[in-house]
Amino acid sequence: MKTVRNVLVLSMVGICLIACSSDETETESINYKISAPTVNGKRLVKIKYGDEFTSIEYNSQGQVSKVKFHFKNGTSREDSYWYEDRRVIRSPYEFIYYLSDGYAVECKYTAQISDQSTITVECQDTYSYDSKGYLVEAMMAPYDFSEEGPFNEIYTYTWRDGNISHVIVTESSENKILEEYDIKYTSIENSIPLFFTYYYSNNEYLEWQGCFGKRSKNLPQSVTFINRTWVPSWDSNSHTYNYNYTFENGLITKISVESPTIKHMDIYELEWW
Q1: Where along the chain do its domains lie?
Q2: What are phi and psi of 206, to 5 degrees?
Q3: Which of the 8 DSSP states describes residue 196?
Q4: Burial 115-149 (b: 16+ CB within 10 A, else e)
Q5: Helix, coil or strand: residue 53
Q6: Which of 2, 66, 139, 178 would you call most buried, defined as having the most Cβ atoms within 10 angstroms of its Cβ?
Q7: DSSP class of residue 31?
Q8: What is Dmax (Cα atoms) for the chain?
């Protein structure tokens, strides 16, 4: 499901600022604001997808501390999160997110690119917000060091009625559009990480906790790709993903993702505790 170069990239999260009289107090308020939402007093602890699943653990402040991905071949990968003074660190690759007023404004990390030889590259992503706290632009460092040379990808977000309505991904060197898509929404309150969409580029669990500005207030109904220059062989340039949600006792327990154009469906099962 996560195709399109993991075009998910960041966006949103509502955060209330608390007046501070010292650096120590400010640090405490920032860390307090970064936390995963609960629904009816329950926390999301497991996401199942076919023969694979993801487990989520929390620290005493209700912040995501570990996300463990269990693959169908029996292997697993674990991401750990540490919350420090105006920083969040995600391992094992040491992504360091620097916060300003509770929002991530840049992320620094080291990428090792293997070709005929292995090179190490210092990378930096940056995030910009409007005066209301909505993410409006994210510049992502290159993941693909091809013969064409590395280039930044710039994600531009348009908001409408408290939701992201349009996303454009451009190549910084030529201002060429790589991807463009529209998003429509349900009336369902957005209380879960958007791991099943195309928004956040592996940052969905931090976005969920409020690291990237105000969140879209509702869950998506559909995402329609209207312009893509990078298309996988099995895909098409323009099609729509539709999202349906199943509830039990006020909790989302299943998400169905369907694309009639390519006759593809994904089903995610959610567990709460």
Answers
A1: 4-272
A2: -80, -40
A3: T
A4: eeeeeeeebebbbebeeebbbbebbbbbeeeeeee
A5: strand
A6: 178
A7: H
A8: 57
DSSP string, 99-115: EETTEEEEEEEEEEEES
Tokens of 125: 């992503």
Spatial distance between the Cα atoms of 37 and 60, rounded to a whole number of angstroms: 14
User: CA 35, 38, 43 angle in degrees (round to 5)?
Assistant: 95
Which residues does 113 contact at the CB level (< 8 Å), separation at least 6?
119, 120, 121, 145
Fold of the domain spanning 4-272 = Porin (2.40.160)
From the list 246, 242, 273, the residue with the least C-alpha distance to 257 is 242
Structure tokens at 103: 């929002």
Tokens of 174: 């030529």
Tens of each residue's pLDDT in the chain, 273 residues: 433 333 333 332 222 222 232 333 333 334 447 899 999 999 999 999 999 999 999 999 999 999 999 999 999 999 999 999 899 999 987 899 999 988 999 999 887 665 555 667 788 899 999 999 999 999 987 655 554 555 688 999 999 999 999 999 898 777 788 889 899 999 999 999 988 876 665 689 999 999 999 999 999 999 998 876 655 554 555 688 999 999 999 999 999 999 887 777 899 999 999
CA–CA separation, 18 vs 25, rounded Å?
Answer: 9
What whole-number distance in Å separates Cα of residue 194 and Cα of residue 47?
A: 12
